[in-house]
Every structure is written in structure tokens, then in C-alpha cells.
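User: Reviewer 2 asked us to show a designed sequence for the structure in our supplementary figure. I'm pasting the C-alpha cells here. Could you produce the per-position amino acids so we can include them in the response letter?
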């Protein structure tokens, strides 16, 4: 396959409401849509790097720079044999996994369209609907949290993840747990604690949580392993797992008992599948994380989460959880059993709504 042209589209989409994590509050989400043309077909990919380097060091601007100046030139007008071939070329660019993952996704979409296969078929998924949960941001106070969770349960979500930060942790979860003794519940700190301050989270062990996600810094596997030894609740790593090697080392060290897999964080869907395979071989539960994707990344995550080792509900909510309007014609809806159906059309199985795309586009660039 020879990519003839690539367009980058910088998008800024309004959220239906504010989303607050330990690193800040956001009302809009930026991303880059990558459009790659080859033999009369176009493939799309989503780069999930956000406007600010809060979740990770990459930003929309750094990803734009790395795509335009380094990654796109590696693929334009070169004969590409496969996604692995792309990854081998992209290895000359150190880091920048979200930029790589966005371009890789466009290749998967193109290959699927050229062969008539959906990503679900390319990945050999094992189920056509995947269990999902909702991620709830930090609210005004614990009572507002209970009200927010009540609304999501009313919409049909059966698993709830709550964002926590120092000062808004044990008490919030105590109140929520009292209101909902049986709801599958997990928390996510987005790296807001140190080994010392995380000792204050010990009471969480009595709330029967599915997991505690990323309590400590992203580059700190070692202290996570010390913390996991002190906690009964499984620790799940998100930000810390940036490669297959990190996943293996985290498991060897006992730094976590569950892994959150996000294609953007690990450099692409192919890497995400490799981490899934590693964890499945060791009997380690994994689930698909979310980055407030548009319909493009959401479709990819659904295909990924259809693999058999994804045995915990993903952070893949319905489109309307974040967006009143999306750039895809497809809107993803929650089924009655708290699942979302995996798209079945060729490639990602989505169609771009060009009018909607233009409404949310900040800038665009044609390469070649
Ligand atoms: O897509 O529903 C989603 C977002 C889920 O909480 C979510 N993602 O650390 O897991 C995480 C966060 C990262 C994004 S925070 C802006
Ligand atoms: Mg997380």
C-alpha cells in the first residue's frame, strides 16, 4: 500500500458538561483527525493528545508537529507492507505514542476498506458487543457525586468509575458506596498521590472496589509495587504502561494486578493488542480505557475491546456521554445490558460527517 496524501485536521469539540480530574477541569476536547488516501480509498485515525499536557506530555500541538515533520514523511509515497512495517519505520521517532497511534489507526482503517474487513475481523474479536462503564468526573461535593452517578445508572451504565484526588477521595467514595452498596465501582487518581500520601487511601480497601487506577506518578512502577503489597484492592495501571515492555515489567514487579489498555498511550492498536496478548497469557484482567474519543477512536476502541482478554468493562461510553454532536454519522448508543455494539462495516465501520467536521475544525493541513 502506498499512501498518496494525508490531511491533518485539528478539532475542538464542546463537551456536554465539564469533566474534572485530579489534573484539571475541561469543557472542550481537542484531538487530531488523520485522513490518509490510497488507491481511491480514505482511512481515518484519531490522535487523542489533548490541548494541555495534563494526562500525558503530548499535546495536540506536539502531535501535530511530530506527525507533520516526522511521521507522515516516513509513510508518504513509500510502499508500506503492513502495520508492523509502519511501526518499524516509526521506531526512529522516540516517544510520542499518541501521534503514532493516530496514524496507525488510519492505516488499519485503510487496510480494512481495501480488504473488506472490519477491524473486528482484522483483530479476530470474540464478541460483537462489549461491556462498558461510565467515567464520572470530580463533582461539587459527595452528594452531587451520588446524584451524577444516579443519572448514569438511570441511563443504563452498570459499572461506574469515579475520579479522585487528594482531599476528594475516601469520603466521596464512602458516601457513594453507602448510596449504592452493590454497584461495581472503581476509582482513578490520575497519578495525584505519592507513596506517602497514598497511605491515606487505605480505607478504600473496605469499599469492595474493582480497582484503584494509577494512584502514583506515571514513571513510578517501583512505588506502585510497594503500594500494591500494602493494599488488598487491585491496583490498575494506566499512565505507567506505555509499552509491552512496561507491561511485562509491571507484572513481574507486582506493580499492578489489572491493566488499562489505551491505544493512544501505547503507540497504536497493534501495541494494544500485544499488551492484551501478554496479559491474557498470564491471566491478568485488562480493560479498554478511554480518552473522550470522537466516533472514530470510539469505533477503534470497541473493536479492540472485543478481544477475549478484555474481561472488565471499558471506559467506552455512549456518544452522548460527552458530545451532543459528533463528527461521525454513527452515534454509539448503550444497549439495555450496558454494552455497546462493535461496528461491522469495513475498516473502522464509520463514516465522517463532513459538515460536522467543518464545524469543529480549528485548522487543517494537506501533506503531499
Ligand atoms: O473516554 O470516557 C472516556 C474517558 C475516561 O476517565 C477517562 N479517561 O485516566 O482514564 C483516564 C481518563 C483520561 C482522560 S482524562 C481527560
Ligand atoms: Mg486513567
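Assistant: Here is a per-position design you can include in the supplement:
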Amino acid at each position: 500500500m502506498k499512501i498518496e496524501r494525508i490531511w491533518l485536521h485539528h478539532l475542538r469539540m464542546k463537551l456536554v458538561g465539564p469533566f474534572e480530574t485530579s489534573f484539571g477541569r475541561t469543557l472542550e476536547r481537542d484531538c487530531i483527525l488523520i485522513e490518509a488516501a490510497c488507491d481511491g480509498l480514505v482511512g481515518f485515525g484519531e490522535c487523542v493528545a489533548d490541548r494541555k499536557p495534563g494526562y500525558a506530555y503530548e499535546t495536540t500541538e506536539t502531535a501535530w508537529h511530530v506527525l507533520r515533520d516526522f511521521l507522515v514523511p516516513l509513510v508518504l509515497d513509500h510502499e508500506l507492507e503492513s502495520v508492523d512495517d509502519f511501526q518499524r519505520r516509526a521506531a526512529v521517532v522516540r516517544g510520542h505514542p499518541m501521534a503514532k497511534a493516530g496514524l496507525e489507526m488510519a492505516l488499519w482503517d485503510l487496510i480494512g476498506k481495501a480488504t473488506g474487513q472490519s477491524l473486528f475481523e482484522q483483530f479476530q474479536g470474540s464478541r460483537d458487543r462489549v461491556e462498558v462503564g461510565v467515567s464520572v468526573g470530580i463533582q461539587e461535593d459527595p452528594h452531587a457525586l451520588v446524584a451524577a452517578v444516579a443519572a448514569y445508572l438511570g441511563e443504563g451504565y452498570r459499572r461506574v468509575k469515579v475520579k479522585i484526588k487528594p482531599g476528594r477521595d475516601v469520603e466521596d467514595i464512602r458516601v457513594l458506596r453507602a448510596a449504592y452498596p452493590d454497584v461495581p465501582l472503581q476509582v482513578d487518581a490520575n497519578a495525584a498521590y505519592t507513596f506517602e500520601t497514598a497511605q491515606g487511601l487505605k480505607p478504600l480497601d473496605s469499599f469492595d472496589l474493582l480497582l484503584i487506577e494509577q494512584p502514583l506518578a506515571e514513571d513510578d512502577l517501583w512505588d506502585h509495587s510497594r503500594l500494591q503489597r500494602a493494599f488488598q484492592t487491585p491496583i490498575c495501571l494506566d499512565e505507567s504502561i506505555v509499552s509491552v515492555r512496561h507491561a511485562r515489567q509491571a507484572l513481574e514487579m507486582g506493580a499492578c494486578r489489572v491493566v488499562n489498555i489505551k491505544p493512544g498511550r501505547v503507540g497504536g492498536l497493534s501495541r494494544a493488542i500485544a499488551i492484551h496478548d501478554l496479559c491474557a497469557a498470564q491471566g491478568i484482567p485488562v480493560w479498554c480505557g478511554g480518552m473522550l474519543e470522537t466516533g472514530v477512536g470510539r469505533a477503534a476502541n470497541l473493536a479492540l475491546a472485543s478481544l477475549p482478554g478484555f474481561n472488565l468493562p471499558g471506559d467506552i461510553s455512549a456518544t452522548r456521554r460527552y458530545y451532543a454532536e459528533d463528527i461521525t454519522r454513527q452515534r454509539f448508543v448503550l444497549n439495555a445490558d450496558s454494552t455497546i455494539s462493535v461496528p461491522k462495516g469495513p475498516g473502522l465501520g464509520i463514516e465522517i460527517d463532513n459538515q460536522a467536521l467543518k464545524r469543529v475544525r480549528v485548522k487543517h493541513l494537506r501533506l503531499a
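For the response letter, you might also mention the following. Residues 174 and 231 are 17 Å apart (CA to CA). The longest strand covers residues 5-21.
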